[in-house]
Structure formats: C-alpha cells, structure tokens
Amino acid sequence: MHESTLRGKTALVTGGGTGIGQGVALALAEAGARVAITYNSHQPDAAFARRVESGSGKPLKALQVDATSEELVGEAVEEIANDFGGLDILVNNVGGLVQRSSILDMEYSLWRQVMGVNLDATFLMTRAVLPHLHRNGRIINVASLAGRNGGHAGATAYATSKAAIFGFTRGLAKEVAESGITVNALAPGFIEATPFHDTFTTSESKAATVATIPLGRAGVPEDVAGAALWLASEHSRFVTGTVVDINGGQYFA
User: Fold this and answer.
1) SS (H, E, C) the chain
2) What's the predicted TM-score (pTM) here?
3) Which of 42, 149, 165, 221 is a Cys-bridge partner for 143, taking CB atoms 3.0 to 4.6 Å apart?
4) pLDDT exceeds cutoff 60 at 2
C-alpha cells in the first residue's frame, strides 16, 4: 500500500482497464484518490475493481469510451466530473501502435488512426477536463521512449505521435501555470505485461531489447505507476513541462 498522499483527491485515468493504465489507477487509489477510468476494448475485471475500492475506500467508476470521439469524450468527462465534484488529476494513458508499417507502405488512413488514438485522444480528453480541473491540479501524459528514439521497425507513425505529446505537454504547461496546474509526461521504455508488447513484439525481440537495458530487466506497469504517483502528488509541485524517462537506463535524453 502507498502512503495516503492523495486522500481527498479525484483522478481520471484513460485507458485504465489494463497494463500501464491499470497500474497507475491502482497506485492512485492506494494513495487515497477516488479513481475513474475510461476503457475501450479492455474492460476492467472485478478483482481490479475490488483492489481500487480497498485502496481508496470508494468504488471504481469505469466508463467505456471511444477516446477519439469528441462527443463521447465530452459526455464521459461531464458524467465523471459531476459525480466526483470536479477533478484533481488527469492521466492521459490511451494510445497504441495500431499496426506496424513503413511510411512507404502506409495508407493515409492508418497514419490518421495512429495520430487519432495517441495525439488526438490526449487533446480531446485534456480539453474536456480542463474546465473541471481544480486549482493546483495535475495532468500526466503517457508518451513513450519511441518519441525519443524513433521506435523499432514499422513504428515511425507511433513514434511521431508520442514525440508530439512532448510538445503538447510543454506548451500546455505554460498555458495553465497561472492556475497552479502542472503538466508533465512519462516516457516508458520496454514495459512488459502490457497489450502493446503482447501484440506487437516477438519473444526474440523482447529478449534482445532486455539485453540492452543496463538494469538487466524489463519494466513493469508498477514502475511507471510510481513515477505517475510522484507527479500526481505535492512532492512534485514545482515540476512542470518535464518528460520523465522510465527505461532502466536504456536511453538518456
């Protein structure tokens, strides 16, 4: 259990039904925050919901949302904000590779889909939440090491969308600073136990990647959740516009 540093706070984690999002949502709940998540294809299971309620003392609120739909995102945020009395923390975690493809072979529709699920979803959710975000709130955007190094083969579109989140984070940090709101990004490296690598990374590629990590292991969702918990807390109140790399020493900015 985490120290109750977020008791009385409210949090929304997008893509919170599995992987990194689930790990972050659980960490925030165990620190005392009341937590809502959105999900699309990965519906949270009952065991996870029980752990959230055990941590925060409040039931998990979970809404199925297409994060690329302006209308559906707006409706979901209104419902959550009304139920919670506003929000203190937003974690933009929705994203995905969609499909590996070189730029030469890529259809424009796939390019737009990748931008939609990674960049557009972050914009839509952030814009919808801002009117409900309390003073001194926290926005945490989940980007990727791919935004730093271009990713592996066939991931150029994904890497581009994640690099754009760095710029979005820095620009927004300046826009909302006068309200005491901080905006930061996380750039996870190779994190196992996530749909991303289960779907798009072979066992051989996983082993080769782990061999390049100085700490000698893959990351897990809890490694990302720890950084998110710090950024959500008062311990990081003078940190904004920053990208936190979480990769075991595989890459240094």
Assistant:
1) CCCCCCCCCEEEEECCCCHHHHHHHHHHHHCCCEEEEEECCCCCCHHHHHHHHHHHCCCCEEEECCCCCHHHHHHHHHHHHHHHCCEEEEEECCCCCCCCCCCCCCCHHHHHHHHHHHHHHHHHHHHHHHHHEEEEEEEEEECCCHHHHCCCCCCHHHHHHHHHHHHHHHHHHHHHHHHCCEEEEEEECCECCCHHHHHHCCHHHHHHHHCCCCCCCCECHHHHHHHHHHHHCHHHCCCCCCEEEECCCCCCC
2) 0.95
3) 165
4) no
Q: What is the pLDDT of residue 3?
A: 62
Read off the pLDDT of each residue in 230-247 and give the average, rounded to a whole number: 98
Active site members: 158
Q: Distances from the Cα of 205 to the Cαs of 35, 61, 91, 196, in angstroms?
A: 35, 37, 29, 13
Q: Using one digit for the tens of pLDDT, what is the confidence trace for 120-174?
A: 999 999 999 999 999 999 999 999 999 999 999 999 999 999 999 999 999 999 9
pLDDT for res 135:
98
| Rounded Cα gap, residues 78 and 83, in angstroms | 9
The CATH fold of domain 10-244: Rossmann fold (3.40.50)
Q: How far apart are the first and last CA of the chain?
A: 32
